[in-house]
Amino acid sequence: MEAVAIKSTDKELTWHLACHVDDVPANGGACVLIEGRQIALFNFARRGEWYATDNECPHRQQMALARGMIGSQGDEPKVACPFHKKTFSLTDGRCLSDEGYQINTYPVEVRVGLVYIGLEG
Ligand code: FES
Fold it and tell me: Where is the Rieske domain (predicted)?
């Protein structure tokens, strides 16, 4: 998925059109390319929430997190990398299974069927 357009600019965030809500499977993820950056976008339908993170897993630099399984650890939404199952919080990106790793997370907004991701700058 590469369709990208700048929607609007806030003080600190630029909102980028990522895709239509139907482009991301319920309780699954998709990779979107925004300004050359691969971002994993998750439609966590069971929770009624959307999340965006880096697509790259920092463990072995695999572009894989969009294909990871999502779930919850207590109240914490998480994604498990499909390679070696390291799990990351979808809210703040910290690795829940190994303190040595961290990913970036990005704000998501859904407006009239379209999904936007906010990037700094
Ligand atoms: S590459 Fe993701 S857990 Fe190893």
Answer: 15-117
Distance 12 CA to ligand 1 centre (A): 31
| The residue type at 83 | F
22 forms beta bridges with none
Cα-Cα end-to-end distance for the chain: 22
The residue contributing the CA closest to ligand 1 atom 3 is 84
Please tell me what DSSP assigns to residue 11. S
- Tell me the per-residue pLDDT of 100-120, one tens digit each, with 9 for 90 and over: 999 999 999 999 999 999 999
Domains within the chain, CATH numbers bracketed:
19-106 (2.102.10.10)
